[in-house]
Amino acid sequence: MMRAFDVSRRYVPAAALAVLLTGCAVGPDYQRPEAVLPGEFAVATSQADQPAAAVKKDWWTLFQDATLNELVTQALAYNHDLLSAVARVEEAEGLAREANATFFPQIDLNAGASRSQVSEVTAIPLSSSTPRIRDARSAALKTSFEIDVWGKLRRANEAARAQVLASRYARDTVELSVAGLVTSGYLSLRAADASLALTQNTFEVRAKSLEIVKSRLQAGSASPIELHQAEGSLAAAEVQLVELRRLRALAQNQLALLTGKPDLRVAPGDLRQLPLPPVPPAGLPSALLEGRPDIRQAEESLISANAQIGVAKAALFPSLSLTGSLGSESAALSNLFAGGAGTWSLGLAAAMPIFDAGRNAARIDQASAVQKQSLIAYQKAVQTAFKEVNDALVGLRENAESERSQDKRVQAAQKTLELAQIRYEAGYSGFLDVLDAQRSANETLLASVSTRQSRLNSAVDLFKALGGGWQDRYQAESDENTGRKR
Q1: Which of 470, 344, 358, 455 shows the shortest CA–CA distance to 407?
Q2: Which CA distances in Å does 255 have to 11, 72, 266, 285?
Q3: Of 95, 189, 191, 194, which is the most exposed, with the fewest CB atoms less than 10 Å away?
C-alpha cells in the first residue's frame, strides 16, 4: 500500500499540470438543430416514357448530348465565378493553417550590435576604469507560447476549420449552379433551334400558299385581298425567323460567358432530339437535403459562429503565456559565443481583465447574435431546399401532362391545316380559313417546343434542388433500410 501511495504522489503533479495545460473549452458545444420537415417529398408520378432511375452526380450526361457535356466540362474548368470560389477556398485553408499554428510556440532569432557613450556628469561619477564608450553584441532565440487553458485557441481553430468546409461547400454550390445554368442555357439554345426549324418550314408553306394565290388570281378565282393576306402572312413568318435568330444568338453568347470562351460557336441542333431524364422513385426521403452543398455550407457557418462564442467567453478568464530566450551577449563580436557569454531567461505571464466597461460582455453578445443569425439562415436554407424540390416535382408532373395535351393539340392543328388547304384549292372555302389554320398550326408547334423545354428544365431544377442527384445517398439509405429489415 505504501509503494502504491508513493507512485500516486509521483504522478499526481504531472497529471495536474496536464489538466492545467489542456484546460476546458468554454462556450457551447455544437449540436445540430432539428429541422421540422415532412419525412418524404411530394410523390412524383412516373410516366411510361420516363421511368424512375438513379441519377449520378454528373446528371447533365443523362441528356446524352456530347456538346452539352463538353460545355459543362468547359464551364467547370474556366467559369469565372467558380474560379473565384476556388480562390476563396484557398484563402480559408490559409486562415485555418494560421489558426492551427497558434498551438505551437513561435521562435524568433534576434541579433543586434550597438555602440553608446555614457555621460560623465551623472549622480554617480564614473570610475577611471569604466570606459565612456561601450560596445554590445547580442544574439538570441526567443519564444512565446500561450497556454490554451480555457480553449480560446481550440475554439478559434474549430471556427477556422468550419469556415474551410463552408468555403468548400460554397464552391460546390457554385459548381452546381454553373452546371445548371449551362444546361438551362443549352436547352434555350436548342429550343431556339427547334423553333427556327419549325418556323422555316412554316415560311416555306406560306411561300407555297402565296404562289397558289398568285396562280388563282391570274386565273380569276382569287381576289387581290387574298394576295395581300398571303403576303402579310409570309412576312409575319419572316419576322418570326429574325426574332428566333436573335434569341439563339443571345443564348449562345450567354453560354460563351458561362464557359469562359468568348468565341464559342455551337452548331445547330434540335431540342426534340434530347431524351427525357428519369424521375426519382416514389417516397424520396427529405433527409437527402442534408447532402445539398448550400445546406452543408449553412451548417458549417453555424458551427463556426457557435465556436466564436467560446472565443469571446475565453477573454473573460486569465490568459497564461510562457516566454523564454536563449543566446549570448558580449562587447566584442569575437567573444559573442565564448564561454561565459551565454544568457537565458524563462518566464510565465498572466493577464486578466479587471475592468473593461463591458467590452468583453458586449463581444459575447455579438457572437451570440451572429450564432442566432446563422441558425436562422440554416433553418431557412433547409426549408427553402424542401420547397425547391417540391416545386421541381410539381413541374415535372404538370409539364408532362401539359406536353401530352400539346401533342394532341398539334395533331389537331395539322389536320385542320391539311383540310383547309384542300378545301381552298377545291374552291369550297376562302383563303381566310387557310390563314387561320396556318397561324394555329404555327402557334401550337412553337408551344409544343416551349412545353418540352419547360419539362426538361423542371428536371434540371430537380437535379439542382437535390444537390446533383439521388443515386449515392438514396441508394445507401435504401441499402441500410433493407439491412434493418433483414
Answers
A1: 455
A2: 70, 10, 9, 34
A3: 95
Provide the greatest CA pair distance for the chain: 140
- Beta 319-330 vs 106-117: how paired, if at all? unpaired
Going by C-alpha positions, the residue among 159, 152, 161 that lies closest to residue 307 is 159
How do 319-330 and 342-351 pair as beta strands? antiparallel
> What length is written for the chain?
486
* Crossing angle between the packed helical segments 152-219 and 224-259, to the nearest 10 degrees: 160
User: Beta-carbon neighbour count of residue 130 at 10 Å?
Assistant: 9
Is residue 37 within 8 Å of residue 386, measured between CB atoms? yes
pLDDT, residue 297, reads 93
User: What's the rounded Cα separation, in Å, for the pair 454 and 444?
Assistant: 15
**pLDDT at residue 197 tops 70:** yes
Cα–Cα dist 257/255, whole Å: 5
Round the average pLDDT of the chain to a whole number and report it.
83
CA dihedral 454, 459, 460, 465 (to 10 degrees): 120
First to last CA, the chain: 55
Question: What pLDDT shows up at residue 16?
Answer: 42
Give domain 35-114+134-476's CATH architecture. Answer: Up-down Bundle (1.20)
Helix (H), strand (E) at residue 324: strand 319-330
* Class of residue 439 by CB neighbours under 10 A (exposed 0-12, middle 13-18, buried 19+): middle
Question: pLDDT for 323-339, tens place per residue?
Answer: 888 888 887 777 777 77
- Gap between the Cα atoms of 462 and 477, Å rounded: 19
DSSP 8-state class, residue 466: T
- Rounded to an integer, what distance in angstroms lies between the CA atom of residue 395 and that of residue 452? 12
pLDDT at 19: 43
- Nearest by Cα to 210 from 429, 421, 443: 421
Residue matched to cell numbers 428544365: 457
CA gap 322, 324 in Å, rounded: 7
- Identify the bridge partners of residue 321 per DSSP, sorted by sequence position: 146, 349
Q: What is the pLDDT of residues 148-193, one digit of tens each?
A: 888 888 999 999 999 999 999 999 999 999 999 999 999 999 999 9
